[in-house]
Amino acid sequence: MRQIELLIPAGSPEVLRVAVDYGADAVYIGGEQFGLRAKAHNFTLADMKEAVEYCHSHGVKLYVTVNIFAHNDDLEGIRTYFEQLKPIGVDALIISDPAVFMLAKEILPEVELHVSTQANNTNYGIYQFWYHLGASRVVSARELSLKEIREIREHIPEDMEIESFVHGAMCISYSGRCLLSHFLTGRDANQGACTHPCRWKYSVVEEKRPGEYFPVEEDGRGTYIFNSKDLCMIEHIPELIDAGIDSFKIEGRMKTALYVATVARTYRKALDDFQKDPECYRRNLSYYREEIGKCTYRQYTTGFYFGKTDSDSQVYDNNEYVKAYTYIGNVETVDERGYLHFMQRNKFSVGDELEAMMFDGTNKKLTVRSIYNEKAESVESAPHPKEPLVVDLGEPLPIGTILRMRTVKGTTKL
Asked: CA dist 72 to 50, 75, 79, 263, 369, Å?
C-alpha cells in the first residue's frame, strides 16, 4: 500500500499547532504575500521559521503556497521573497504560475516544487510536463473523477506524487479560476482576495428596465445558484487510495482551529483504521460520519469523483452553514490544581457541558464547575471573546486539547 499523506491547512500559527497535534502528516500555509488566501492571518517570515521548527520537531512537513497568477510587477517581489525563504527550511512550495515555478527552481533548488490545482491539472500529459520541469507533485484539478486520476497514475512515473482535495469548500469555477469577485468588487480571486460572491443571493435585471428586479429561481427552491455543497470523502477512503492518490488534502486556510481539529482528527483515524485493517474502517463508518458532522459545513457532496456534478451538488435555498458545535478554547496550560488556562473563544457558563477532543479520537464530556477571570475573580459565565480564563472541569487535560460545546441552533449565516 502506498504511504498516504494527510495534508492539513493552517491560516495562523495557532491553527498550525492544532493541525500538527491532531494528526497532520504535513501542513500547508501562506506567507503574507503571493498566496490565494489574502484574508487569512497568514505567516510572517518569523512565524514561518517557528512553524518549521514546530512541524519538524513532530515529524511533520511544512509547505508554503505561492500560488497567485503573477503580473509583471509581482516578479521581483517574488524573487526577493524566495531569497528570504532560503534559510527557513520549508519542505515544499505550492505554485500555479510557470514563471514563479522557474524562479523557485532557480533560487530554491533544494525545496520540492508542487503544482497547485489552480494550474488546471486535468490530464496525465500535464503531469508529465511538470515532472520533466522538476515538480515532484501535482495537485489534481477538482473536476477529475477517480477513474481519470487512476488513468493519470498509470501514465506517470512511480515517484511522482498525486495530491487531491478530499474535504472542504468547492469553487464553482473551473479549478478556482474565477473573475466574479474581481468584476463585482475589484478584488481579484487569482491574486488571493476572493470575496466569495458565489455564495450571494441573485436577481435578474432586464437591460431596458433598470431598477426592476426579477428573482432567479431553480424549481422554486431559491436563488443561490452558484452555492456549491462542501466536498466530503470520509466514506470513500478505499476508492481514493485505489485511484493512486498520495496526499489527501483538506481545504480550509480560512477555517477555525475547531474545524481543523475536527477534520484532521477524523481523517487521521479513518486513514489509520483502513491501513491497519479495512474491516476496522468499515466498522467505524458511523463514527466518522458523526464526527465529521461536528465541524461547520454547508451540506456534503462527493464532488466530481464519481462523475459529473448535478443539481444535487448545490445548495439552492440558503447560504448558511450547518454548525452543530461552538469552539470554546484550546488548553494552553494546566496548573497544580488541575485547572485549565486558555483564551475563551465563545460564551459558556458554569454548569455547561463541554466536550474535550482527545488526541486519540475519543471525546470527554465534562461539566464546567467554576470559571475565574484574569483578576482571579469567580464568575458565572464568560461572555467576552478572547478573554483569558482559568476553568475547573474536574480533571486536567493535555496541553493543546480543543474544547467545544454543542450549539442550540443548527445553522449560522455566512
From this structure: 31, 6, 12, 38, 59
Type of residue numbered 277: D
Q: Which tens digits make up the pLDDT trace of 200-256? A: 776 677 778 888 776 666 554 445 666 678 899 999 999 999 999 999 999 988 888
CB environment 367-391: b (16+ within 10 A), e (fewer): ebeebbeeeeeeeeebeeeebebbb
CA distance 285 to 322: 20
What's the rounded mean pLDDT across residues 5-18? 96
Cα-Cα-Cα-Cα dihedral of 175, 178, 181, 182, to 10°? 140
R_g (Cα) of the chain, nearest Å? 22
Nearest of 199, 207, 128 to residue 162 by alpha carbon:
128
What nine digits make up the cell of 22?
491532531
Chain-centre distance for alpha carbon 172: 17
Which residue in this structure is represented by grid cell 431596458?
208
String of DSSP letters for 150-182: HHHHHHS-TT-EEEEEEEE---SSGGG---HHH
